[in-house]
């Protein structure tokens, strides 16, 4: 049985191989991570504060490594659009 963190890492890998975050609006987004009281991280949109969703997965409960990886992918995609 895989741990929650292993499932997150797998989901991030699949997501990266499929092209990353969808952005059909043409707008550029900036994402950040928020440290939660339970010791996990949540990825959110820095302007709205909304949690990032990839399909049915809300990007919360992440460990530090997976949160950093998700941010790198999200913010790199933003830079590639500039």
Topology:
Elements: H1 4-17, E1 31-35, E2 41-45, E3 53-54, E4 57-58, H2 64-81
Antiparallel strand pairs: 1-2, 3-4
Helix pairs in contact: 1-2
Strand residue percentage: 15-25%
Radius of gyration: 12 Å
Uncertain segments: none
Report, as a whole number of angstroms, the end-to-end distance: 41 Å
State the helicity in percent bands: 25-40%
Give the tally of β-strands. 4
The number of distinct helices, counting runs of at least 4 residues, comes to 2
Strand count, sense and closure of the main sheet?
A: 2 strands, antiparallel
Q: Give the overall shape.
A: globular
Q: Strands across the major sheet, in which order?
A: 1-2
Mean pLDDT: 78
Write down the secondary-structure element order. Answer: HEEEEH
Assembly annotation: single chain
Structural class: alpha+beta
